[in-house]
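Much of what follows relies on a compact textual record of a protein's fold. The record below shows the convention in full:
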Amino acid sequence: MADIELSAALEDYLERIYLIERKKHAARAKDIAMALGVRASSVTSALRNLSALGLVNYTPYDLITLTETGTAMAKEIFGRHTALRSFLEKVLGVDAEEADRTACKMEHTVSKTVMERFRKYADYVERCPGGTAAAGTDFSQFVAQNCSNKTKDCPYCSLLASADKKE
């Protein structure tokens, strides 16, 4: 995949075209405008830019499809969005709507290294056989109880307190 730098807005267009294309096999400018809540003139401008970069097949008033490079980039953007949304929901317990909005903002700025760590940590919490799937549950309980460190009712704070006494 070519090393093409896109603005957050163009990444959003690419991702949206990808999602529409998955459903309908091709996108129309009005589908994109409706999905992103923008004017048709904004879509036209973005499509011209994406076409000039070789990421979309675009001719005015015709169906829009992604090129091979465009598809690869869109899948990568969508993958970041999905991983971040999943992390926010499953690990941090953020509600789905807020997780989706936040992931959309974060997907444009998170480095590849940090993104990979998000993915690995979410996978670790979800799949590690050492009982770490409970870590996500424990964190959710921690947040719900508004735990303020060394609370008698918290089993982990109690363990820490007893360990401190032994030292």
